[in-house]
Amino acid sequence: MTLMDALPTPRLRWEGRHPNIVLVSFSCIMLAAFWVFDVVSMAPNRIVLGTGHGALEAFGWPGALLVTLLLACIGILAWQPSHRHYRALLAAVVFIMALMPVGLMASSYLLIDPELPQARLGIGAAYWLVLFVLLLCLVELRLRLNLTRIWPTLLLCGVALVWWLCAAFGLGALALVQEFRARDQQFLSAVGQHIKLVSIAVSVSIVLGLALAMLMRRYARLQKGAFAVLNFLQTIPSLALFGLLLAPLAWLAANVPFLGQLGVSGIGTTPALIALIAYSLLPIVRNTYTALEQVSPDTLEAAKGMGMRAGQRFWQVRLPLALPVLLEGVRITTVQAVGLTAVAALIGAGGLGTFIFQGLGQAAMDMVLLGALPILMMALVVDAGLGALAEALRPGGTR
Amino acid sequence: MIELSHVSKRFGDEAAVDDISLQVPKGKFCALVGTSGCGKSTTLRMINRLIEHSEGDIILDGQAIDAYDPVKLRRRIGYVIQHTGLFPHWTVARNIGLVPRLLKWSATDVQYRVAELMHLLGLPVDEFGHKYPHQLSGGQAQRVGVARALAADPDILLMDEPFGALDPITREKLQDELAKLQARLHKTVVFVTHDMDEALKLADHLVVMRKGQIVQQGSPLALLQNPSDPFVESMLGGLERGLKQAALTRVKDHMTSMGPTLPAQSRIPGVFSLRQALSMMLRDHCDRLTVVDQHDMPVGELSLRRIIKEAQLDNGNTRE
């Protein structure tokens, strides 16, 4: 043994680690956006177009410096990432997101003239961009840390709570909050109506879709035809489908009194539901069908050979094994329906789309946001919730 | 007792199985061997009515299988397939307990039976009972497959290339275990394989099939000594046939009593096969072995000349 062997091998601290290019570039993008684009905009009243304000004006130099440091911190931590760094990064991302409404409070204090009660603060391009990129960071971190889907959702719920508290108590000047306060009852009923439309449409299409998928398995000839029809339905633009339903349903309502009494009419909930169900059927049927067909023939053969009856094979073997893929279909469908329901407002079905179209009509972007943001959040919640459920139902805990 | 007489299966004009007759007496192990597509799997699956036969009679314990309710018939026949067909969403214990539960055994009976079978197949319940199939090795999974087939204690066991997907070492181990199990349980087994060595090792009755027909059937030794045509001969390994035959004969059945000469250096237990004896002679460069009993006491001797003479005698006898 030589002396060299006895000495400990000098180990480089960062041996074998490479910068996480994704997060580093995200950090650069956020820094650039923060300094180049408007952070907030300020308008003296609802009609006048707001004037944009950069980072220094919005936060003052201490605030701008703090934000810069925080955003740079993401890039620095991602330069030589370890597991601990990724966890720190996750904490930093969540912290920044929770800090964002506080920043808005600071700029409303700095920019809003108390003499002008109508003055309102708009969220600027930089803010949206940073928020968007932070969400992307979260996706990347989820993959790096190998977290289940439920974790980011829980964290985001926490962040949303902070936003909500700030909006309720310290952000009266924010245009979005003002729009909400002007029509809070209307907002709540719109959310309720939106959820109602989505849940009716999705549950009806689950029942119809399951039945259709079963029929397709029994009658092979039906399969081609049904998929062709469903695919065709999917290609009709949603607006056109709503329009196309108008005339026949109005005719039905006028000529079949029973249907009229049930609430069928050319505009409103009925055509909206019909269109939503038509769109929802394809993903449900497709996933249900593939889910049921992809169950290993060996397993089914064994089930038959062991002496299980057809019903037992279906309920105890085929369906449980198909469930994760089937639920995936429900998830896709629900997320799609949440978005599509916004369009249904055009034919008087209500829901959050009402604000979007009213806002577009009045060129009031904040009102559009009042409709769009809850839709976005609903879609995210549905996505995460059903995704987590499908994950939990994987056969035998295979993850 | 399983009896097939003039059984055929046609898919359209194509005959997958063409007029085969065969008998598997109670407690015997019958192996169906042939190249792929020869109809051996189809034959097996006709017995538990996964495929309905087109012509002929399949008789089980004196009654034609058409008279049974297919579901009830399958519940009294154990069935093992190549890729195990275990239910991936069920634990090992639940998989094994399937047929007893279908037969409405009480929960405690099922639990007791599962534990018993897992013990029998060398899978401790505490360690494996709660595992899922994807957590098992190939060999363990197929043991579970065998346990599941045996769960309701059926008289008949159908095995469709059960060890075909396993590595050679695991396969051999499971073959040995199956042989031991069969020596204890005496099930009536129909075993499909394309591996002639596996069939020779396990079977009491060997059936060689080609293009839906039985080419030759009989005891493994009879087939080795007297293959009826070149196809059977090539299935049996051509030039290797002599060694395969030697593998089926035990040393103690052919040894002679100790002669006046000095005992040979190399010793071989009497339960070993002539093939192993030949291998030992090649390894030790000798033409004589001392045969010993389980206590390593010499009980006789075996010479190369004797082995060759015996083979001559055996084959001569069957030809007559």
From TrEMBL, chain A:
Q: Tell me which positions the record assigns to the signal sequence.
A: none
What's the protein here called? Answer: ABC transporter permease
Pfam families the record matches = BPD_transp_1
- Would you tell me the Gene Ontology cellular component terms? plasma membrane
Q: Which SUPFAM superfamilies match?
A: MetI-like (SSF161098)
Note the topology in the membrane. Multi-pass membrane protein
- Domain of life from the UniProt record: Bacteria
Q: Which InterPro entries match?
A: ABC_transp_perm/SBD, MetI-like, MetI-like_sf
The alphabetized UniProt keywords are: Membrane, Transmembrane, Transmembrane helix, Transport
Give the record's family classification: Belongs to the binding-protein-dependent transport system permease family.
User: Where is this protein localized, as stated in its record?
Assistant: Cell membrane
Gene Ontology BP terms: glycine betaine transport; transmembrane transport
Q: Where is the ABC transmembrane type-1 domain?
A: 191-386
Q: Which residues cross the membrane?
A: 21-40, 60-79, 88-112, 124-141, 153-177, 197-216, 228-252, 258-282, 337-357, 369-390
From TrEMBL, chain B:
InterPro entries reported in the protein's UniProt record: AAA+_ATPase, ABC_transporter-like_ATP-bd, ABC_transporter-like_CS, CBS_dom, CBS_dom_sf, Gly-betaine_transp_ATP-bd, P-loop_NTPase
Q: What is its main location?
A: membrane
Domain CBS, by residue range, is 255-320
Gene3D superfamilies hit by this protein: P-loop containing nucleotide triphosphate hydrolases
- Entry-linked SMART domains: AAA
What are the protein's UniProt keywords? Answer: ATP-binding, CBS domain, Cell inner membrane, Cell membrane, Membrane, Nucleotide-binding, Repeat, Transport
What reaction does this enzyme carry out catalytically?
A: a quaternary ammonium(out) + ATP + H2O = a quaternary ammonium(in) + ADP + phosphate + H(+)
As recorded in UniProt, coiled-coil segments are none
Output the Gene Ontology cellular-component terms.
plasma membrane
Location in the cell: Cell inner membrane
Pfam families named among the record's database cross-references: ABC_tran (PF00005)
Q: How does it sit in the membrane?
A: Peripheral membrane protein
Q: Enumerate the Gene Ontology biological process terms.
A: amino acid transport; glycine betaine transport
Enzyme Commission numbers on file: 7.6.2.9
Residues in ABC transporter domain copies: 2-236
An example Gene Ontology molecular-function term? ATP binding
How does it associate, per the subunit comment? The complex is probably composed of two ATP-binding proteins, two transmembrane proteins and a solute-binding protein.
The similarity comment for this entry is: Belongs to the ABC transporter superfamily.
Cross-referenced NCBIfam families = proV (TIGR01186)
| Name under which the protein is recorded | Quaternary amine transport ATP-binding protein
Q: Which organism is it from?
A: Vreelandella boliviensis LC1
